[in-house]
Amino acid sequence: CPCAAQFANTIVDDKLILSIGRLLIHAQDMRLFVKRYLPAFENLGIGKSGALWSYVHDTRPTFERVRNFFLAHTPSQSQWSQDDAQWVRNHINSCLNGDMIGLYRHSKFLSFL
User: Fold this and answer.
1) Which of 22, 45, 71, 88 lies 20 to 30 Å (CA to CA) from residue 112?
2) Which domain of life does the protein's organism represent (predicted)?
């Protein structure tokens, strides 16, 4: 991604990188959930100008920038950090493909990080 190149020389520690990735997983899960059920919310009288609509549609550029930042960095301190980052990266990419992970699948993993 050409956007990722602008972050290639930024220095951040492994803990921050993984925190950004884990936060992104949860935010993407919620965004996919809301996007999937937005028509049902509209049937309940929630219009296209509300917070749910905004969360799905207006936040796209922000999600792209955070995702590009995370994907441009690889933790370097330990193999464990690198493995965790790869796990997070795989789940972020699965969200991009439209697969809803579900918080229950990775909550056990995230609880001991």
Assistant:
1) 71
2) Bacteria
Place of tokens 């999600």: 63
Residue 1 vs residues 13, 35, 47, 52, 63: alpha-carbon distances, Å: 22, 25, 34, 28, 14
Q: Which two tokens stand for residue 67?
A: 């995702």
At 9, the amino acid letter reads: N
Greatest distance between any 2 Cα atoms in the chain: 50
The reported pTM is: 0.55
Under 8 Å between Cβ of 103 and 26: yes
**What is d(CA 69, CA 48) in angstroms, rounded to the nearest whole number?**
30
DSSP state, 104? H
Burial class (CB in 10 A: 0-12, 13-18, 19+), 21: buried
Contact 9, 73 (CB under 8 A): no
49, two tokens? 């100008």
Domain span at 94: 2-111
Query: What is the C-alpha to C-alpha distance for residues 111 and 108, in angstroms, rounded to an integer?
Result: 5
